[in-house]
Amino acid sequence: MEVVEIHNYPELMDQCCDLINMEWPRNKTARYEQQFRFAVKETDENANKLRTLEMSRDELPTCLVLVLSHEVLGHSKISPIPSIPSGCFIESVVIHPDYRGKGLGKFIMARTEDYVRSRGIQTAYLSTIDKQEFYRKLGYTECEPVQIYGGPVARKLNAELESLNKINKTNDSKEVHLPLASSVSTVTMSPPPPPLPPSPANTAAVVSRSTKVYMKKDL
Ligand SMILES: CC(C)(COP(=O)(O)OP(=O)(O)OC[C@H]1O[C@@H](n2cnc3c(N)ncnc32)[C@H](O)[C@@H]1OP(=O)(O)O)[C@@H](O)C(=O)NCCC(=O)NCCS
After folding, report:
1. What is the residue with the minimal CA distance to atom 17 of ligand 1?
2. Of the candidates 66, 105, 106, 153, which lies 20 to 30 Å from 77 by C-alpha distance?
């Protein structure tokens, strides 16, 4: 059993795609792809997943796969954090459903950390909705949200939110939380419009945003 960089084993990409699909079907996988700023259309969704894996390289972002006898049993992805050069962001950690609970999640995380440590990275960050216990056992502790995107779009959003903040400072203000890139930013604005009527989709969005936890580990 070994953990390898997917870009050195392109023949494993289809299998890896299937594994990611199994855990994060269409809508969630689309979110994964948007981290790379691809426009996701239903028709070319699978091509985009492959493209995401094809972006893997020695310097981050890197996708690692856990392989046993040419079978992909796990995946993790390591991305750089432009605002924290000594840190990295670990995401899309997944073990094949048939192989969970056997220590493989711990194993791929250990190898992922070795990989980033060998590149001089000192702190690993991640976010999770419901796997805090798993990561806690591996030494991760809760931390403030980190902004993992530092490109022009994120900077423009930041600037716009800052100017909104200034404009609304004099208004009858109420603190609200807006999603910014992949982190959460606090700005001051006028009161929001009344909430939408409850629906399963709305409820899921609210729950997932409000329960996302950031964690970190010094390596
Ligand atoms: C989370 C995941 C990667 C864990 O992989 P795994 O191979 O089942 O985990 P391991 O067997 O290596 O478990 C390591 C330790 O974490 C614990 N653990 C694993 N999953 C856990 C969970 N959901 N809640 C609490 N503890 C958990 C195990 O009991 C074990 O504890 P121990 O060392 O005291 O025996 C796997 O369940 C998975 O792929 N889940 C779906 C995808 C996902 O949610 N990924 C995380 C995205 S943030």
Report:
1. 134
2. 153
How far is it, in rounded angstroms, from Cα 119 to Cα 154?
26
Expressed in angstroms and rounded, the spacing between residue 173 Cα and the centre of ligand 1 is 43
Q: Determine the distance separating the centroid of ligand 1 and the alpha carbon of 104, expressed in angstroms.
A: 8
CB of 133 closer than 6 angstroms to any ligand 1 atom? yes
Question: Confidence band (pLDDT; 50, 70, 90) for 44?
Answer: low
Distance 103 CA to ligand 1 centre (A): 8
Is-cis flag, bond preceding 61, omega within 30? Answer: yes
pLDDT in tens, 119-159: 999 999 999 999 999 999 999 999 999 988 765 555 555 56
Contacts of 54 (CB under 8 A, 6+ apart): 7, 10, 13
Give the predicted TM-score (pTM) of the model: 0.75
